[in-house]
Design brief:
Layout (H helix, E strand, L loop, with lengths): L7 E5 L2 E4 L5 H17 L4 E7 L3 H10 L2 E8 L3 E8 L14
Antiparallel strand pairs: 1-2, 3-5, 4-5
C-alpha cells in the first residue's frame, strides 16, 4: 500500500477539501475539474490557489475555454491564479498625484 501525502484543494477563500488516502493525481484531477466547471459556467473573473504541478494543464484548459490566466503570489507548491474571460485587456485606473 502506497504512502500518500494528504494535501488540500483550495475551493474558495477559507474553503479547502482533503481526500485522505487518495493519490496526488486524484487531487490534481479534482482541482482541474473544479476550474473547468467554473470556466464552463462562464464565470467572468475569479481567483484560485492552484498546485504548481497543475500549471500546464490549467493553462491549456483556460486557453481552450477563452480565459486569460495571470499568475500572482505563491510558493514552491502553490500559486494564486486569476482567470479572466476573453482577451487580456489592461485595467485602467485613475491615479491622483500630489504635488
Amino acid at each position: 500500500m502506497g504512502h500518500y501525502i494528504m494535501r488540500h484543494i483550495h475551493l474558495d477563500d477559507g474553503l479547502r477539501l482533503r481526500f485522505p488516502g487518495r493519490s496526488e493525481e486524484f487531487d490534481q484531477g479534482v482541482e482541474i475539474g473544479m476550474l473547468a466547471v467554473l470556466m464552463d459556467q462562464g464565470e467572468r473573473e475569479f481567483t484560485r490557489w492552484i498546485s504548481r504541478a497543475n500549471m500546464d494543464q490549467v493553462r491549456a484548459i483556460a486557453r481552450q475555454l477563452d480565459y486569460h490566466v495571470v499568475e500572482g503570489n505563491g510558493d514552491d507548491e502553490w500559486v494564486s491564479l486569476s482567470f479572466r474571460q476573453g482577451s487580456a485587456k489592461p485595467a485602467l485606473r485613475l491615479v491622483h498625484s500630489i504635488g
